[in-house]
Every structure is written in structure tokens, then in C-alpha cells.
Write a structure and sequence with these properties.
mainly alpha; globular
Length: 297
């Protein structure tokens, strides 16, 4: 399937146009460009973000999350100083994504999607720190974008998509992995001729995220993480699968595909543990920590 997605450029272009997938805001591109310079002009970045009042407010709000551990932040300058350039850039991305995807027509479902994204991104970043296999900011971005297409589908007002959103935001049940029941990907393909994984991939590419992040977003429901050639993508994909499991039962998504025991989940996701060098006991510890991390998200 990896090869298929990358070969269907024409089809993907049609999907992007029909769904009106938002382009990356110019302010985010400007921040990206400045961050990539050999000598970063921090004053310029502060001025760029500060000029956008709405985005500034969102960046400050995100920066004050306990998960970042920066303390009280009341200005863009302080956010950049305390968070560091990479984490600050992630908060800019978060604020801009929220603005781009927010849909008043589907406010209730959007809030569900957004809270879910916040929770998974926080858990993914935490797992990245624990395993030390990938930059936590990369894991955070993967978590933030992995289900972003659900907001696009809702905004497009796809018929009956509100009935599928819990399945899209949930983990794939064992019955679907064993092909005894149709998965959310199959249901979306039948109804819309695409699925939220592919559309999330397109959004990530549109927003100039690293290819490893876009790949992890595209395959975040695939339990065989070894399909990826790059080790970093394998790590990110495994972290997303684990983060989804850790939040199950703790956020505002109705339980879909909930596994009755940890061993049941491990049985269906053995390559996640081996990829991240984690044991069942490690997962138990992470599950116990999950609620605290979610509350801080």
C-alpha cells in the first residue's frame, strides 16, 4: 500500500481539491523558513507570530500546558525563551492547525477531534521521551495530525460522517485486524472513495511536515510497522499505535474496539513492543501514567 499511495499522484491531487484540504498558512511557512536558517533571527520569529493576534493567543494557551513544564507564559517572547525553538515551533503549528480546521458547523464533533488530538500528541511525546528513539516534537506532530482528516470530513459535511467519527478516532478492533469485520478505513473507502489516513497524509504534506511524520500519519492504523523503510518512521508509527491504546477509555471518544486486557492488545500489536524495545510491564507503567499526562495535555 505504501507504493500504491505514492504512485497515485493524480488521484491524490483530485482528493485534495475535492476536499479543499487547507494549505499551510503563510505565517507557519515564514516561521519554518526562519528556523531552518543557519543563524536564526529570534526577534523576527517573535514579531511574525505576535502580529497575528488570534494565533498569538492560541500559541500562548498551548505553551501554558503543564506537559511543557515551562511555568506561567504570558507573551510570545517568553514562550520562545522558555520552550526553545523546536517546541515553540510545534506550538505555532498547533495554533495554526486549530484555526485552519475549526468548523463552527460541527462544533461538538470538532471539540471531540481536537481534544483527542491533544491527548494523543501529549502521550506520543511522552512515549518518545521514555524510549528515547525519536525527537518528542516529531512524535507530538504525528499525534497532532494523525486524525486531522476527520475534521476535514466533518467540515465537508460528508453524509453520516458524524456516525463514524468515534471509529475513526478509536483504535482498530481485533475483529477488523483479523478481517472478521470491516475497519473504519474500509467503511470510509466505500462511502467516500478515500479514507482519513490518506487525507491526513495529504494535509501533513501540504503543511511541509517531515516525510517520516506524513508517513506515520498515513499508516497510523497499520499494526505492522515494519512496512516502513526508515527506522524513524517505524518508531513514529509504533508510538502512535501505543499512544492510541494508552488514551483509550480516558478521553471523550466513545470506546470503540476497546481490548479487554493488555495481553489482548499486545497479541494484536507485537511489533509495536519490539520496535520500541518495551515489555508488557513497561506498557503497564505507561498506562498507569496516562491519566496524569492526559490531564496535563
Amino acid at each position: 500500500m505504501l507504493k500504491k499511495i505514492h504512485e497515485e499522484h493524480e488521484h491524490l491531487g483530485e482528493v485534495a481539491r475535492s476536499l479543499e484540504i487547507p494549505s499551510c498558512p503563510q505565517i507557519v511557512i515564514d516561521v519554518y523558513n526562519e528556523v531552518r536558517k543557519k543563524e536564526i533571527d529570534f526577534r523576527k520569529i517573535i514579531d511574525l507570530v505576535s502580529k497575528d493576534v488570534g494565533l498569538s493567543a492560541k500559541v500562548i494557551k498551548v505553551s501554558n500546558r503543564p506537559m511543557f513544564g515551562a511555568g506561567r507564559i504570558d507573551s510570545i517572547e517568553k514562550a520562545l525563551s522558555l520552550l526553545g525553538i523546536n517546541t515553540f515551533t510545534a506550538t505555532v503549528l498547533t495554533g495554526a492547525l486549530n484555526e485552519s480546521l475549526c468548523s463552527t458547523a460541527a462544533a461538538v464533533h470538532f471539540e471531540k477531534f481536537w481534544r483527542h488530538s491533544e491527548v494523543v500528541s501529549a502521550l506520543a511525546a511522552h512515549v518518545a521521551r521514555i524510549t528515547n528513539l525519536v525527537d518528542p516534537n516529531m512524535a507530538y506532530m504525528s499525534g497532532l495530525f494523525h486524525d486531522s482528516a476527520t475534521a476535514i470530513f466533518l467540515k465537508k459535511k460528508y453524509p453520516d460522517y458524524s456516525k463514524l467519527i468515534d471509529m475513526a478516532l478509536g483504535i482498530i478492533p481485533a475483529e477488523a485486524l483479523l478481517e472478521e469485520k470491516q475497519s473504519i478505513i474500509g467503511l470510509e473507502e466505500v462511502a467516500y472513495n478515500t479514507n482519513h489516513c490518506v487525507v491526513g497524509y495529504l494535509l501533513a504534506r501540504n503543511w511541509h511536515l517531515p516525510d517520516t511524520v506524513a508517513q506515520a500519519v498515513c499508516y497510523h492504523h497499520y499494526v505492522d510497522v515494519t512496512i516502513h523503510d526508515q527506522q524513524e518512521t517505524r518508531n513514529l508509527a509504533a508510538i502512535l499505535l501505543l499512544a492510541e491504546y494508552l488514551r483509550e477509555g480516558y478521553d471523550n471518544v466513545r470506546a470503540v474496539g476497546l481490548y479487554s486486557t493488555l495481553n489482548d492488545w499486545v497479541k494484536m500489536h507485537p511489533k509495536v513492543l519490539s520496535q520500541l524495545y518495551l515489555s508488557v510491564e513497561d506498557i503497564k507503567d505507561l498506562k498507569r501514567d496516562a491519566l496524569e499526562i492526559i490531564n496535563a495535555a
